Amino acid sequence: MSILYAGKRITSALAAAAALVVLGSAPAWAHVEVEADHAQAGATDVILTFHVPNEEAPAATTRITILLPQDHPLIGVSATAQNGFRPTLTTRHLAPPLQASSGAVRDVATAVTFSEGRITGHDEKAFDLHVDQLPSDASTLTFKVLQQYSTGSSVAWVDVAADGNAEPEHPAPVLRLAAASPASTPSATAAPAAPASARPITVSAAPRHLAGASHAAGVVVAVVLALAAAVSILMVRLRRPRNGRSGPASLS
Questions:
Q1: What are phi and psi of 170, to 5 degrees?
Q2: Crossing angle of helices 3-23 and 215-239, rounded to 10°
Q3: In whole angstroms, what is the distance from residue 180 CA to residue 23 CA?
Q4: 131 touches 108 (CB < 8 A)
Q5: DSSP string spanning 79-145?
Q6: What is the pLDDT of residues 200-210, one digit of tens each?
Q7: Coil, strand, or helix at residue 227?
Q8: d(C-alpha 180, C-alpha 41), whole Å
Q9: Do 187 and 137 contact (CB within 8 A), yes or no?
Q10: How confident is the prediction for the chain on average, in pLDDT?
């Protein structure tokens, strides 16, 4: 095998590797995760997006229950039917009421359950919740998610890792919040309340999904392309005659 031919094969391999990195750069969710379009304490009109993967194929996900934080209640939670699932809201009554920017709040959501749908294969679906106002006195919000499968088994995404410890097998989704702006109205910690009740949700909230390419994947692509360029330069140099080499000698 000539050096030139080997160089061509290396260039082709690098190009193929770059293509694989690009194709695989879309976000993949190994656990249930949460993100927000405005992750700031006290923010209003917020969309929370929960990414739920089906990790036990061929079984299908048939029910998803999102347990909302009660130490820092979310004000005005609502959702719509999505991905073939119907939402049901569970609430509890507050006494005394919670003071928010919109006035006194006497009922807050404790859970949202999505049912009557299926997530199959190795698919992942995003579920949106609309929140009128996030708590202004929190820096993180921890959600717990219960995922039920068609086989009757379930997975509880409820584990919270202590600081400095490794991530648990089924971590609870955590949303980190930026500090509240000075204009945000402080929200109080919820007081003990009456038993929760469940009702269907009819308030509409247009789903909005957040997506983005991986920065790390972009760095890898740049490195691969740089190596490919270096191999190409080497190939060009190998084609040139070496200095000092002459044709056949003649005798006079």
A1: -125, 75
A2: 170
A3: 38
A4: no
A5: ---BTTBEEEEEEEEEEEEEEETTEEEEEEEEEEEEES--B-TT-EEEEEEEEEE--TT-SEEE-EE
A6: 443 333 333 33
A7: helix
A8: 5
A9: yes
A10: 76
